[in-house]
């Protein structure tokens, strides 16, 4: 029993040290996210989940409130939010899927561009550090000569 407790305690204490050896690389994570979000299968999957979430919300019955609406709104006693939305926009489900898929693709593109820019911004920061270091030491340095 004591041995088990000691081993458990040792394992718990060692876990943070082990975790520090595998610090995530932010650039790599962004590249992976960009690649994942650019995958059409992932885009369709996310669009499907968003569609399912929307449908769960749109299944809300609003018919009991029909008597409080304008008769021209044509809210019927058995209506849900979904029937109202689809009555106004028969292509709602397809449009939601397409717009969501496009938004996920755009997010993937943006993540890829951000990863590309991060290395450029790092190079700019390095140039600025060199200029500041030179300024401190009284030297004159050209910031655009070396990346």
Write up what this structure looks like.
The chain is mainly α and 147 residues long. Helix content is 71%, strand content 0%. It has helices at 2-20, 26-37, 40-58, 81-88, 92-137. Helix 2 (26-37) packs antiparallel against helix 5. The longest helix is centred in the last third of the chain and has 46 residues, at 92-137. It is elongated, with a radius of gyration of 28 Å. The chain starts with a helix and ends in a 10-residue tail after the last helix. Mean pLDDT is 82; it is low at 1-15.
In short:
This protein has 147 residues and is mainly α. The protein has helices at residues 2-20, 26-37, 40-58, 81-88, 92-137.
Give start-end ranges of low-pLDDT stretches.
Answer: 1-15
Largest sheet: none
Radius of gyration, taken over Cα atoms and rounded to an integer in Å: 28 Å
Helix content: over 70%
Rounded to the nearest angstrom, the distance between the terminal CA atoms is 60 Å
| Class inferred from helices and paired strands | mainly alpha
> Overall pLDDT, averaged?
82
Q: What global shape is seen?
A: elongated
Helices, by number, come to 5
H and E order: HHHHH
Q: Beta-strand level of the residues, as a percent range?
A: under 5%
Oligomer: single chain
Question: How many DSSP E strands?
Answer: 0
């Amino acid at each position: 029993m004591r041995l088990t407790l000691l081993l458990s305690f040792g394992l718990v204490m060692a876990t943070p040290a082990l975790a520090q050896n595998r610090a995530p690389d932010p650039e790599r994570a962004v590249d992976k996210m960009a690649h994942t979000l650019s995958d059409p299968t992932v885009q369709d999957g996310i669009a499907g989940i968003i569609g399912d979430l929307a449908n769960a919300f749109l299944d809300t019955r609003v018919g009991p409130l029909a008597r409080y609406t304008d008769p021209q709104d044509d809210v019927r006693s058995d209506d849900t939010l979904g029937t109202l939305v689809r009555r106004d926009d028969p292509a709602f489900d397809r449009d939601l899927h397409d717009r969501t898929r496009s938004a996920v693709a755009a997010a993937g593109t943006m993540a890829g561009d951000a990863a590309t820019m991060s290395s450029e911004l790092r190079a700019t920061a390095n140039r600025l550090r060199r200029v500041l270091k030179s300024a401190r030491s009284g030297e004159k340095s050209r910031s655009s000569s070396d990346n």
